[in-house]
Amino acid sequence: MELRLGPLLRYVDETRATVWVETSTPGEVEILGHRARTWSVHGHHYALVRIEGLTPDSETPYEVRLDGSKVWPPEDEPYGPSLIRTPRGDGTFRLTFGSCRRSAPFDAKGYKEFGPDALVALAERMAAGIDEPPDAILLLGDQVYADDPSDAVLEKLRSAHGGRQGSEVADEIGNFEEYTWLYDDAWTTPAVRWLFSTVPLCMLLDDHDLRDDWNTSLTWRRWVTSQPWWRDRVVGAYASYWVYQHLGNLSPEQLDQDPTYRAMLAIEKDDERTAYLDSFAWTADEDPASTRWSFVRDFGDATGGVRLVAIDSRCSRQLEPGERAMVDAYEWEWVRHRTVEASRPIHHLLLASTLPFLLAPGLHHLEGWDEAISSGAWGPRGARIGEKIRQGMDLEHWASFRKSFDDVTGLLAEVAGGEDPPESILMLSGDVHCSYLAEARLLAVDHPGTAIRQLTMSPFRNPVPRHIQWANHLLDKRWMTNLLHRLARSAGVPDVAADWRITHGPWFGNGAMTLTLSGADWSVDVDHAELRGERQLLSRTLTYGRLDSPSKRLMS
After folding, report:
1. What is the pLDDT of residues 256-294, one digit of tens each?
2. How many angstroms separate the Cα of 278 from the Cα of each of 214, 266, 310, 367, 380?
């Protein structure tokens, strides 16, 4: 029995943790005296070990044993022990986040095409003790690229499925088994494997986890669901996402209540368990209300802390013209409830979405205009042109779902204008292959005590070509913003109840952002990866934030 993948440290609170593993055969997994039997789907074997009795504000090294034999950490592990760190006693919380990581070799060709890997560089920094380790990492989508796999995975695809040549998806992932190849490819890099074993992970999925432009419009969805390859693809995507990413987002209490997880543990036959998971995955696509990928996590202490509301902005979209919504009414009610009706004081509210809420203002107006003409504001011909532009330019962010954008600004006003508003509302996103910080002001309410910011970090490792960088800079020009604003108004798009501006960025290099939250204080470090000789390192680009007193403000 061997350790195929992991360990991944997932949920951690004051006294408990969960650790996920994939093994080569069925058996028993033991960590710190806590044991779990594996369960199997599609011929693969998994376990989520629940650990209890940890000491608050502590660091506990751990080993993984399979059927009694130690398999982790390896004897020659260069990065040090894997640790479970329970939350700090002073309430300070550090969160590193970002998105979009391609798998590629760390050689001259790989560096030329994709650059250094920000997660490898983060692991190197942690191992060297250069900075305080994060208390969690939030992976905001595109952990794997099902529609554009690495050369190593392509070779396996072509070897295993030569008969699929000639299909438009010949070089794409087609089913659960092939999705496992993606995760093997992405998560076995030694530095990243160690990093994921010692920092708790939260994860959301985005379009490349399934296919580019996933659920961008009703036209796209009607086309893709008519394809003969779609069922295997979407079942493999949702089933593997549930196993590899979503399951670990859940707290122990949520695991106890999750019907799919209970079924994985209760069903005795592997083929019946596989059939159950595949049926769950297919239903999740056909009926988004049948499951929920959004999740909530609380950090800090009981006197006031940090709430992370991670919003699924792909799977529960409403796509009918005139009713378009980034999340449907059922999902949005859950988001609103978890945001407004918290059971304890919140100093900092983190709203996470793979797609940015606030774009460069010029791009925001472009997406609003495109949604309007695609919905018929300029007639049938304009609608056809708008749809082509939407799919060609990936105009599918919150700005292109105006109803949902207005819902967000209304929610922000409700929170910031409440009786006990948080010190900050920080919107965390990725997707756009550039990073930036935006300052926002709501028009419906005054909120002098609540900072509202959009923090966007992308990519970890997948830079965009230079012509796309130029296009981003052009869209940020004032004259272009004004032009696109007039264009949006000509299509009947009203102004929104917020003003914002990008104050720092955009940057286009691979990198990561780290939030530090403590009491009323908050700050963000923007780091970018660079190659020094053969070492991948993080270099500090910016430290920005607000501390408790005006004399302690950071904006450098």
Report:
1. 999 999 999 999 999 999 999 999 999 999 999 999 999
2. 20, 16, 25, 35, 39
